[in-house]
């Protein structure tokens, strides 16, 4: 489904949302939701309007390009007409469908990998072993630039106490553990005995096994069993996407002020912004991305590293 977005600078985003919904509500289906967003559906295309500080964010999605253009035109014309005290500029992005979004040009991806601290022998071997042992599942492993970023974040946060949700064959655990001091602790959660057996071997090889405690079983149960006090310095979430909102909630409550939670795959290959994708994990990730952006417990930034990485720091 083609999607197009625009960001309009205005100190009054909420006022325009109400005005548009009220005006267009006579001819189209339109509403303002509890969180102040507007939704207007015109002839099979929908525009979602969200207030964000001094901006109004617009997303149009429709079955085809003609309908996208029609909805864009109606929304932009009315916005400009309602703006009697200021001049609004609505510049729509070229429409793309979620599955067509190329987050990183492959050539740039290679260049980027060639320009970060290189992976050592252990990590290089783990990449090869993971492909041999798991075949197609090897794509779940984080990339080296993301791993380097994790190690750096752990050091920058001065973390001693870390949690990882989603170990697989252990690449990200090694990267996190390497950022911890010698007496640091990483609680590593996964359901797979087979994959984490490989992880444990490579934790030994990397010399970080003594800092990592593996717990097998559903991660949500292990998180809920943690003490309620805010003792986590850093957490990395990279497991079943549908459970991300639950993982985030359990972790954010236990993060110490200044602690950080990192979430992988927040773009879902671009599908997160395409309303044609409505499976449970799409809906869960879309809702969580919105929630984090408005969560006043944290400051957050979404980074275009590979499939999207959100970093949220507890206030
Ligand atoms: C994307 S992989 C993690 C990749 C890993 N971070 C790395 O760097 O290689 C997702 C992992 O989450 C685990 N997983 C899936 N559902 C889970 C659950 N409910 N609780 C704990 N782990 C789960 C899978 O077994 C898998 O190993």
Automatic annotation (TrEMBL):
Protein origin, superkingdom: Bacteria
GO aspect biological process, one term: methylation
Keywords: Methyltransferase, S-adenosyl-L-methionine, Transferase
Record CDD domains: AdoMet_MTases
One Gene Ontology MF term: S-adenosylmethionine-dependent methyltransferase activity
Stretches of the chain forming a coiled coil according to its record: none
Protein's name according to its UniProt entry: DUF2218 domain-containing protein
């Amino acid at each position: 489904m083609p999607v197009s977005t625009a960001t309009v600078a205005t100190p009054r985003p909420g006022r325009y949302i109400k005005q548009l919904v009220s005006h267009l509500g006579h001819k189209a289906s339109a509403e303002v939701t509890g969180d102040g967003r507007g939704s207007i559906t015109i002839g099979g295309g929908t525009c979602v309007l969200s207030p964000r500080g001094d901006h109004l964010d617009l997303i149009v999605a429709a079955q085809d390009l003609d309908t996208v253009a029609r909805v864009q035109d109606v929304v932009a014309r009315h916005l400009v007409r309602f703006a009697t005290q200021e001049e609004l500029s609505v510049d729509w992005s070229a429409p793309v469908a979620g599955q067509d979004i190329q987050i990183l040009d492959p050539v740039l991806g290679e260049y980027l990998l060639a320009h970060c601290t290189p992976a050592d022998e252990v990590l290089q071997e783990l990449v090869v072993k993971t492909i041999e042992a798991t075949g197609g599942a090897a794509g779940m492993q984080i990339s080296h630039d993301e791993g380097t970023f994790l190690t750096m974040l752990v050091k920058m946060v001065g973390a001693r106490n870390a949690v990882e949700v989603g170990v697989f064959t252990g690449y990200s655990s090694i990267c996190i553990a390497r950022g911890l001091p010698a007496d640091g602790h990483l609680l590593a959660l996964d359901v797979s005995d087979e994959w984490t057996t490989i992880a444990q071997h490579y934790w030994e090889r990397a010399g970080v096994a003594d800092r990592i405690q593996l717990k097998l079983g559903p991660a949500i149960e292990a998180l809920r069993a943690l003490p309620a006090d805010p003792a986590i310095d850093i957490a990395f979430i990279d497991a079943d996407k549908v459970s991300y909102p639950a993982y985030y909630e359990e972790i954010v409550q236990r993060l110490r002020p200044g602690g950080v939670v990192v979430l992988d795959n927040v773009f879902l290959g671009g599908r997160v912004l395409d309303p044609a994708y409505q499976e449970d994990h799409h809906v869960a990730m879309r809702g969580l991305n919105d929630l984090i952006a408005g969560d006043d417990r944290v400051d957050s930034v979404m980074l275009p590293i590979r499939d999207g990485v959100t970093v949220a720091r507890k206030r």
